[in-house]
Amino acid sequence: MLNTSRKFLAVGLAAVAMSLASNPSVAQQVVKIGVSAPLTGAGAANGKDIENGVRLAIEEANAQRIKLGGEEVRFELNSVNDQGDPRIGVQVAQKLVDEGVVAVVGYYNSGVALPASPIFAKAGIPLIDPAATNPAITRQGLKNVFRIIATDAQNSGNAGKYAVTVTKAQRIAVMDDRTAFGQGAADEFKKAVVAAGGHIVASEYTNDKAVEFNAQLTNIKAANADLLFFAGLDNQAALLTRRMRQLGMRTQFVGSGGIADSIFIGVAGSAAEGAMAWEYGRPVESLPKGKVFAEKFKKRFGADTLTYAPFAYDCAWVAINAMKQANSAKPEVFMPALRTTQYEGITGEIAFDSYGDLKHPTSTLYQVKGAKWVPVTTISAE
Q1: Same domain, 225 and 191
Q2: I need a surface site. Which of 131, 233, 311, 366 has the fewest CB within 10 A?
Q3: Both 33 and 107 in a single domain?
C-alpha cells in the first residue's frame, strides 16, 4: 500500500512539473507601467485617450512574449486618476511608486506634472511625458523626466512667429486659461510675436472652468484685433469661438495645442469653420505608421484617437524598448538606455537632448474646413 501511495505521489509531482513547463505564465515576471491622467472631469476624454494609447502598446508587447533576463514578462497597466488637480496628482504619484511601477506615462496637465515629477525622481522611476508641454517640466534638474512632444516654447513660439510673418496679423490679441499650460503657452506666443516685430493690442485671461467670456471678448473687439491666440483646451476653446461668432467678431481664432480635435468641432458647431490651431508633431496620418495605428486604435476601442493617444503609445514603447535593450525591468538598469533612445515611433523620430526633450520637435498648423481639421503647414522648431 505504501509503495502504491509513493507511485501516485511521483506521478502527481511529474504532472505538476509538466504543467509548469507547459505554462510559461506561471513563471512570468509582472512589470507594472503607470499612467497618470485625468479620467474624470473636463479633461477625461483626453485622459482616456492617453490611457488607451498605453493600453494598446502593453497589449501588443504582451502578445510578443518578451523576455528580460531570460524570464518572460507580462506588462500590466496601472492607471491613476489625477483629476487634473496638482494636489491629487502628487498623492496618486506616490501611490504609483508604492505599488511598484517601473515607469510612468504622464501627464495631460502641466500644472500636475510640475509638482508630481519630483516624486518619481526621488524614487528613481522614469517619467515619460506624452502631453504636458510647459518648458519648465524638463528644466527642474531631474534626470528621470523625458518628453516626446514639442514644448510650448517650440509650439507656441512657432505660432507667434507665423502669425506675424505669414498670416500678417497687424493687431494681435492673446487670452489664456491661467493654468500652468495656458499661461506658459501664452507667454511663449507673446515673446515670439514681439521678436518677429508684431504688436499685441490686448491680453486677457479667464480660468479653466469658465463658460462665459463676454468681458474679455468685449475688450478684444474694442481693440480691433484681427487675430486672437487662445492658450487653453478644446472644450473651452470651442465655447469661446462660438461666442465670438455670436458677437459678430471676424477676428481669426488661433488655438494652442490640444484644440484640434473632434471635441472642439462638436462643441463649436458651425462656428468652428475657419478656426485654426497649432498642434504638436506632424499629422499622424502622414507618417509611415500613422494610418495603421489609427485603424488599430479604432478597432480596439471603438473610437478615433483625439490628440495624445499616439504620443502615449510611443511613450510606452520607448520604455519597453529601453528595458529590452538593457535586458532588465529595473529602472536603475534601463534608465541609461532610455536616455540614448533612437526610436522611430508612430509620432516620428524620438531621441532626447540633455534635458530629456525631443531633439527634433515639430509643430503643425491645422484649420477647420468642411467640419474637419485639415493640415496647413508643418514647421520644425528652431
Answers
A1: yes
A2: 366
A3: yes
Measured N-to-C along each axis, helices 331-339 and 309-326 cross at an angle, to the nearest 10 degrees, of 110
Q: Do 134 and 246 have their domain in common?
A: no
- Domain check: are 128 and 56 in the same one? yes
Tell me, yes or no, whether 228 and 368 share the same domain: yes
Asked if 306 and 234 sit in the same domain, the reply is: no
Residue 208 lies in a domain: yes
CA distance 319 to 232: 29
**227-263 per-position pLDDT tens digit:** 999 999 999 999 999 999 999 999 999 999 889 999 9
Which position has the grid cell 508633431? 281
Q: Which DSSP symbol is given to 43?
A: T
179 vs 143: CA distance, rounded Å: 25
Residue 175 and residue 208 in contact, taking contact as beta carbons nearer than 8 Å: no
Predicted local confidence at residue 12, as pLDDT: 47
| 235-to-177, 211, 241, 259 alpha-carbon distances in Å | 12, 9, 10, 8
247 and 158 assigned to the same domain: yes
- Reported confidence tier of residue 21, pLDDT bands at 50, 70, 90: very low
Please tell me whether residue 372 adopts helix, strand or coil conformation. strand
11 within some domain: no
Question: Cα–Cα distances in Å, from 338 out to 3, 36, 78, 242?
Answer: 58, 20, 20, 44
Domain of residue 109 covers 28-150+285-351
Edge-to-edge strand order for the sheet containing 200-205?
200-205, 172-176, 227-231, 252-255, 276-280, 362-369, 372-380
Nearest by Cα to 147 from 128, 172, 125: 128
Grid cell for residue 160: 507667434
Q: How far is CA 121 from CA 25, 118, 137, 244, 322, in A?
A: 32, 5, 12, 44, 18
* Per-residue cell: 200: 499685441
In a domain, 117, yes or no: yes
Q: Which amino acid is at 144?
A: N
Quote the distance between the C-alpha of residue 205 and its chain's center: 24
Taking the C-alpha atoms of residue 352 and residue 294, their distance in angstroms, rounded to an integer, is 25
Q: How far is CA 62 from the centre of its chain?
A: 23
| In a shared domain, residues 371 and 344 | no
Farthest-apart Cα atoms in the chain, separation: 102
